[in-house]
Amino acid sequence: MVHPFALARHDAAMFPSDPDVLVIGAGCAGIAAARELIARGRSCIVLEGGTRVGGRAYTESASLGAPFDHGASWLHQADQNALTPLARALGCEMLDHDTLRDRRLFADGRFATREERAAFAAAEDAFWQAIEAAARDGGPDRPAAEAAPHGGRWDATVAHWEGAQICAAELSRMSLHDFAATALDGPNMVLRNGVGALVARLAEGLPVRLQACVERLRWGAGGVAAEGGFGAVTARAAIVTASTGVLAAGAIAFDPPLPAQTQAAIHALPLGLLTKIAFRADHPDAPDLPPFAVLRRAVEHEGDRPMALLSRPYAHPYLVAFCGGARAWEMCGDTARAEAEARAEVAAIFGARAAVALGPATVTRWGEDPLFRGAYSHAVPGRMDARRVLATPLAEGRLCFAGEACHPRFAATVAGAWESGIAAARAVA
């Protein structure tokens, strides 16, 4: 018996009473899976526990008066990104952030000189040369931090930037081999109306049922049944796109339990956390940074964990502070602390007057949201294989997992989620 669901604007689509496939989650992977299933003539229903589509790609304009991506913000490696041609086909305005980015560095209480910025860039190059060489040396997997250069003037800042601030987890927590395998290149496209807005458009017309949180999934040779407060829905197969944070927390009970190797893979792919603290910045006393500027503060001492600042994308009047890794988890659930610490970062660079001039903060809350429980995945040391294991279909294709955590190359991105959703749709029984 299928009980009534809350429906989105997707209610124009037909909802099959006996679908071929259930897709759990209407994030990027779920949307891609549903589109691929329908293109292949398979019927499906997408069960989404939240009140919107998009998952960790979410754009809204109400809080800052302009499009703001709470989650995914760039189409990385755009020339090979499956979402790039889709965005172009929809007429989305986008620019390569790499060609616009005004990179600034603050160190020793002042803005770095041209020579210091060049030295920092050289340290970044040396970092990646060391990481890539270590990943190829034939040795066992180990924490990425063990392969990173140490002791140089900029080494701690580069490690903090590449780990906590980009990958949402410290290098000490991450598999060297997975870190190297999932490193991304440009172009990095930024969309005027947001990545989340693009993903939401790609979901239009799909059979998505909102506020349908799956609490139990029965699966086996006879098919699958998803159960929750909405009732129950049966199908021949299921594609589960819930985050590894949700899966590791046991938010979905699997009956029978998942195989031990699948469970181990889930726990070997924990979610890191990247929190954004965004402020309106249209007051004359607000920090004077040009559109698309990125400002990093150098690590000054052991235990220093600076935030980074992104200024006015597309000249939108806001400033975003990025806080990643352990520091973000420490602030999780305390938006007042996050705002205060971000203002303190601004004050340390531009002065107290500039920090006070910023408007009220909008703080992202991925870590505390029970539908996500973090930002994006990394593999723990020794478990580079976990992505492949999690993506392996079960019960002869009756149960498949998809999402950014399943992609061995584009992990932690919308591109990885999208491609994994397509792959699961092709593999499902």
Automatic annotation (TrEMBL):
Catalytic reaction(s) noted = L-tryptophan + O2 = indole-3-acetamide + CO2 + H2O
The enzyme's main class, written as a single word, is oxidoreductase
Q: Which UniProt keywords apply?
A: Auxin biosynthesis
What InterPro entries does this protein's entry cite?
Amino_oxidase, FAD/NAD-bd_sf, Flavin_monoamine_oxidase
Asked if the record carries the keyword Protease, the reply is: no
Q: Name one GO molecular function term.
A: tryptophan 2-monooxygenase activity
Q: Which Gene3D superfamilies match?
A: FAD/NAD(P)-binding domain
Tell me the Gene Ontology biological-process terms attached to this UniProt entry.
auxin biosynthetic process
Claim: Lipid metabolism is one of the keywords in the record: no
Which EC numbers does the record give? 1.13.12.3
Pathway(s) annotated for this protein in UniProt: Plant hormone metabolism; auxin biosynthesis
Secretion signal, residue range per the UniProt entry = none
Q: Where is the Amine oxidase domain?
A: 29-428
The record's annotation in SUPFAM superfamilies points to:
FAD-linked reductases, C-terminal domain (SSF54373), FAD/NAD(P)-binding domain (SSF51905)
Tell me the protein family, please. Answer: Belongs to the tryptophan 2-monooxygenase family.
Tell me what this protein is called.
Tryptophan 2-monooxygenase
